[in-house]
Amino acid sequence: MAVIKEKAECCTLLVDELYGQLPARVYATLFQRGKLSVRLISQFSKLSARQVKNGLCVLQQHNLLFYSVDANSGEAEYSVNHEYAYNLVRTGKILEMVDNSYGPAGRDVMQNLLLLGQTRISDLVAAYQAKINEVNNDDAWLNDKKPELVIKSKAQLNSVLCRLIEAELIDVIHSKTFQSAHEIEKQVHREVMDVYFPNGIKGTKAKVEFEQRVAEGLRKVREESKTLKRKLAQNGGASKRRKLAVGNETNGAPEEEEDLDPALDPRQVIRINYEKCIVELRSRRLVQYVNETLGETTGYVYGQLLKQLTKNISRCRSDPLMDTLTPEEKVTPSVTTNEILDKVKTSIDLTLGIGKIPSKSISKSAAERLTPFAPKDKIPFMNQDDSDDDEEDGDYSDSDEEMDTKKENGDAPVARMSRPEQLRQHLLLLAEGHPGFVRHCGEDEWTVDFKPLMENLRATELDSIIEQTSGRQGLRLIRILRTKGKLGEQALQSLSLMRKVDLQQKMLEMRLVGFAHTQEVPRDNKADPKKSIFLWYCDTEQAYSSLIAKCYATMVHCLQVLEVRRQKDKDVLSLAKRTNVKGKEKDMMRDESYARFAKFLKDERLLMAEMMRIDDTLALLQDF
């Protein structure tokens, strides 16, 4: 798959930032030249074969490469795994997400896997056991403070790994892990042809069957990484094992929670599953949207709903070849109000965030309206002709005095609701209007249509960026072009009610940044530019592509500025790395040196924060 230049440069700089110059040079060569053998990498990168092999080992250890063996020459050929390389920038977000969901122990395990790359379970257990033994050796800490262990036993480590594997945040390395999607598809094509179509594909029916066989074969390959999860599922899953433990404790046989999980096969090699991590990051982002627009209590309810819905969602974007389902299989997952209520903490006050409006002012039939089917061909952009036609004249809300009187008499409607009904009010609020966070798909059943929801949020993000860069006038012009299609300058001027000079200046400004485009329409066969008509139009997909390229370019600039600052202050940074100075910089360093060190740390935080903000935009535009 082709990768834009800005993304290739960004990935190379991220590899350089985390793993050093040698792997980065090998990675850059593969990006520039495509699939290469060790001999060709050495030739193009001007590195020795030994250096190339060392760089390839580091890249393969961290799942940044694909490789295959050429059938003719017998040489291994390597290519880049650019998705894994870019996901390195999301390390902090992933660790924060795991910490919130699985606690410090889960975060510690994920952090070690991110640092080590693909790891055999026995090696990970041995590393933790060595650390536990070191901390438990009292003689080693006579003069120093004994550190607090996050993972305190092998049983606890096994339990944490089981939780992460069941959540699909960790998956298993298998024989085809390091083959690119293109290579796997070619291999499955050959196998299907050899087994089922030795005489070739003849007719439409055979072609459909061939595509189904290929999709089935690709799904089997993809499911090979879930072998550990399936074994754990055979033991009933974590929740079932905990319920059995409660029963045993009642019968007088208490068990530690860590001892309930089956021992994992120590020979298995595991790694971080970034696809599932991105699903969790999408849920986190959606909850942030709801917190900002509808309040924190409604956001908490939405978070619990998303946890239930995304349990069996392995990736944000389905594969058009593998994820082809029959109409019977296309069953939208949903959750009930009671299932969500079971997960909501009793300490959460569900009365918060619910509007206090008298029942006579609410259309119950409209609020409770069911939408059993997902929207089709939904236009992602909001209707630009928003008006208040659906609002009727008159004051439907109680006055402050009336509300106070109702509260004193215990007649406040929210307080009189049962807890399930209070939860329903939050869910109905999520289901209302744009952008459609939730769909009320059945009686007390709720679901989320992620594809149209993310399209709406992408459109909102694009409008926000257009307004920030080109102002309200620019956004208004873009909305006119979306509504009317391609327009000449005179027609656009009459609709926008702007002066010709201002219109030309604003449209040229937006054309330079990629939000507006022109099309030349010749008046005759000579195609004389002086006699041609130029039409303005808005291509949303092209605007997205232009914005994505600019985001990558900005991240590249941030990494380059950071490297320049490191070179400028390398004397101070090398001083701060000394063992007798580390952690005591303010006391051990001179005032001038410490001021430079503090300034560097501040600038580094600002640059990293800028990169995280840009990644939020990139994730929304291309990953979620």
Automatic annotation (TrEMBL):
The keyword Nucleus applies. One of its GO terms (cellular component) is RNA polymerase III complex. Residues 9-69 form the RNA polymerase III subunit RPC82-related helix-turn-helix domain. This is DNA-directed RNA polymerase III subunit RPC3. Residues 462-538 form the DNA-directed RNA polymerase III subunit RPC3 winged-helix domain. The keyword Nucleus applies. One of its GO terms (molecular function) is single-stranded DNA binding. One of its GO terms (biological process) is DNA-templated transcription. Component of the RNA polymerase III (Pol III) complex consisting of 17 subunits. Belongs to the RNA polymerase beta chain family. DNA-dependent RNA polymerase catalyzes the transcription of DNA into RNA using the four ribonucleoside triphosphates as substrates. Specific core component of RNA polymerase III which synthesizes small RNAs, such as 5S rRNA and tRNAs. It is found in: Nucleus. Residues 160-457 form the RNA polymerase III Rpc82 C -terminal domain. Residues 229-260, 373-418 are annotated as: Disordered. Keywords: DNA-directed RNA polymerase, Nucleus, Transcription. PANTHER family: DNA-DIRECTED RNA POLYMERASE III SUBUNIT RPC3, RNA POLYMERASE III DNA DIRECTED -RELATED. It holds the Pfam family RNA_pol_Rpc82. It comes from Neurospora tetrasperma (strain FGSC 2508 / ATCC MYA-4615 / P0657). Residues 385-403 have a biased composition (Acidic residues). Its main location: nucleus.
